[in-house]
Amino acid sequence: MNIYDYIDEYGIYSFSEKEFNEVDSAIFSFLSYADFSNIFEGEKMTIQEIGRKHIGLHSKKENNVIAVREGNRILKYLKDTKRYRNCLIYNHKYEGTEDIQFGVIAIEYQKNEIYVSFEGTDELISGWKENLFLSYKFPTKSHLKAISYLNRNYTFSNKKIIVGGHSKGGNLAIVASAYANFFVRKKIKKVYNFDGPGLLEKEYYGKAFQKILPKYIHIIPDYSIVGLLLENTNTKVVKSNNKTILSHNIFYWEIDNNHFVKSNLSLFSKNLNNEIDNWCSKYSSDEKYDFINNLENICKKVDVSSLLDFKERKTKLIDLIHESKDLTENSKKILMDFVALFLKCLNNTTISEIKNLINRKIKLPKMRTKEDSNGIK
């Protein structure tokens, strides 16, 4: 079964009846992608309150990117379930500029039990940009905001904490947990990284990460790409029913009862990971910095901002790189190496598959629990 099948099956149970598990963690990690703009009126709102208000505000056709759409879908699917509807969401923060994209929510799923969910990248091309940024710089602006968020909100709190995130959000979960102050770290029960990058070698072997290592869980699909970037450990490989880069979306991960189905890393991911490692090690930090800026400028000129755009406009993108008078020959070579590598990532992914994921419709369940039949909402 998939995430939505799991919600159908487990949605009728409270967390006291069926305890919190790794699938719940994945759901909460993706919930932070949802568009919470113009939602919050006070400090705290239940998932049901947010979900109902969200439908009123975002009932028209969505123009959001894939991850945000999935977050919105999950929110709507959770809102009337016994398990999730009364979970409180608060301490929402979001900042999106050309320099930074940072989002986070706190979810109180039981009394004094908090899940801090750091949002991943909400645009695939910029996601690659941010993940490449992680390949040579620490800490980033998002890292500093994530650490500050935990310290500011939970230093004097008596609540137990689980920290998690998907994609870049998983990387933020590691860094925030490792570099938070002692009072926060001792309250953290687990740290989940769902198919997100790891750490640079220096930070990976540093004392901060080693302190949270026993609490750390890294879960990736068998066709992972992003989750293999940088140094990582405590990795559980799970089965995906999509054999392309789209397996990054947790919708495709297979579930048995209350856990993800274990698998082995595919040959595709192993080979691609080696090529990505070679690309990252081939160029200096200065060359990577210039490359990221050049890639962003080139993508803007051909109006490429998503996975779908990249597939549809790859010829225009390549032609523009070759013809550009603003780029040195070395810059062109670095860009072409990356484009070739990125197209290899997309090799088995068809445009129709991407469109299907973007436009996918889900039928919301009409759940009725015993409490509902007694008139309790």
Describe the protein.
The protein is an alpha/beta fold. The chain has two domains: 3-273, Rossmann fold, CATH 3.40.50; 283-345, no CATH class. The protein is built from 17 helices and ten strands. It has an eight-stranded mixed sheet, sandwiched between helices. Strands 9-10 form a two-stranded antiparallel sheet. The longest helix is centred in the last third of the chain and has 17 residues, at 285-301. The chain is globular and about 60 Å long.
The largest β sheet comes out as:
8 strands, mixed
Predict the CATH topology of the largest domain.
Rossmann fold
Radius of gyration over C-alpha positions, nearest whole angstrom: 21 Å
Strand order of the largest sheet: 1-2-3-4-5-6-7-8
Cα end-to-end separation: 28 Å
* Total helical segments: 17
Per DSSP, what share of the residues sits in E-state strands of 2 or more residues? 5-15%
The count of β-strands is: 10
Enumerate the spans where pLDDT stays under 50 for 5 or more consecutive residues. Answer: 366-377
Helix content: 40-55%
Would you tell me the structural class of the helices and strands? alpha/beta
**What is the CATH architecture assignment of the largest domain?**
3-Layer(aba) Sandwich
* Element-level helix/strand string: HHEHHEEEHHEHHEHHEEEEHHHHHHH
Average pLDDT score: 86
- Identify the overall geometry: globular
CATH class of the largest domain: Alpha Beta
Please give the domain count: 2
